[in-house]
TrEMBL record:
Gene3D superfamilies: MetI-like. It comes from Halomonas saccharevitans. This is Proline/glycine betaine ABC transporter permease. The chain crosses the membrane at residues 51-81, 93-116, 136-161, 203-230. Belongs to the binding-protein-dependent transport system permease family. It comes from the Bacteria. It holds the Pfam family BPD_transp_1. Residues 89-268 form the ABC transmembrane type-1 domain. PANTHER family: GLYCINE BETAINE/PROLINE BETAINE TRANSPORT SYSTEM PERMEASE PROTEIN PROW, GLYCINE BETAINE_PROLINE BETAINE TRANSPORT SYSTEM PERMEASE PROTEIN PROW.
Length: 277
């Protein structure tokens, strides 16, 4: 006796076909706006000479952290420039910045709402578990019918992939605020909005920043993978090296990714601490 298989794949394909047909105007509008943002940020960063942008990055690292990070940033950026990977690095940085901004704008309100509503918290946690355990490559599949091949699809897949940590950490930070401080705010007659803005969010800020840090790291890993669907940047250099069997070129691009990831990680950690280390 054979048990008929559930046509789950056919249902998913049918749902994607319906969405792309019914909401093609919306996706085209999102695609145009996103592509405009990508082109604008790329043009602004490319307009700066490499040495000028390098100095800006070094100054930022010195300001938010220490001279040691600034020296490391100078050496790392100079190596990327020397390896002739400056332009791909800029394209990767653009994708990471835009994807992170979109993910954080969506994640923070959702995380706050989940922290304040027990029903929403119980509903959203299994969804986040599903999103974080789904293989990263799967997120590339729905991006293509919605937005086609290119950087916009990479942004879409990266936002979905990198958003869960920001939601989780925002919810966790707010829910871990000591109850006696909440009771003290209630005793002084604080409204729900005042408690959120003046007590819960300020106290949970280090945890929220840790979530944003994780979102940035996941975004960087995803935009590299998204080179498979036409995203520009260091990921495309790695993908091109794999296709042409050039391990040296692939390692050079990989080292550039590591340098960029370390800089972004150290800068966001310093911002989370709120002081120079």
């Amino acid at each position: 006796m054979e048990i008929p298989s559930i046509p789950l794949g056919q249902w998913i394909e049918g749902g994607l076909d319906w969405l792309t047909t019914e909401y093609s105007g919306v996706t085209r509008g999102i695609s145009r706006v996103t592509q405009t943002g990508i082109d604008g940020l790329n043009d602004a960063l490319f307009w700066l000479p490499p040495w000028a942008l390098l100095l800006i990055i070094v100054g930022l690292c010195w300001w938010v952290s220490s001279h040691r990070l600034a020296i490391g940033a100078a050496l790392g950026m100079a190596l990327i420039w020397n390896l002739d990977l400056w332009d791909p690095m800029i394209e990767t940085l653009t994708l990471v910045v835009i994807a992170t901004l979109v993910a954080v704008v969506i994640a923070l309100p959702v995380g706050i709402a989940a922290a304040l509503s027990e029903r929403l918290y119980r509903t959203i946690m299994p969804v986040l578990d599903f999103m974080q355990t789904m293989p990263a490559f799967v997120y590339l599949i729905p991006a293509i019918p919605f937005f086609g091949i290119g950087s916009v699809s990479a942004i879409f897949a990266t936002v979905i992939f990198s958003m869960p940590p920001a939601i989780r950490f925002t919810t966790l930070g707010i829910r871990q605020v000591p109850k006696d401080l909440i009771e003290a705010a209630d005793a002084y007659g604080a409204t729900r909005r005042q408690k959120l803005l003046k007590v819960q969010l300020p106290l949970s800020l280090p945890t929220v920043m840790a979530g944003i840090n994780q979102t940035i790291m996941l975004a960087l890993s995803m935009v590299v993978i998204a080179a498979m669907i036409g995203a520009d940047g260091l990921g495309s250099e790695v993908w091109r090296a794999i296709q042409r069997l050039r391990p040296g070129d692939g390692f050079e691009a990989g080292i550039a990714v590591v340098i960029l990831a370390m800089l972004l990680d150290r800068v966001t950690q310093s911002l989370r601490k709120g002081r120079k280390s």
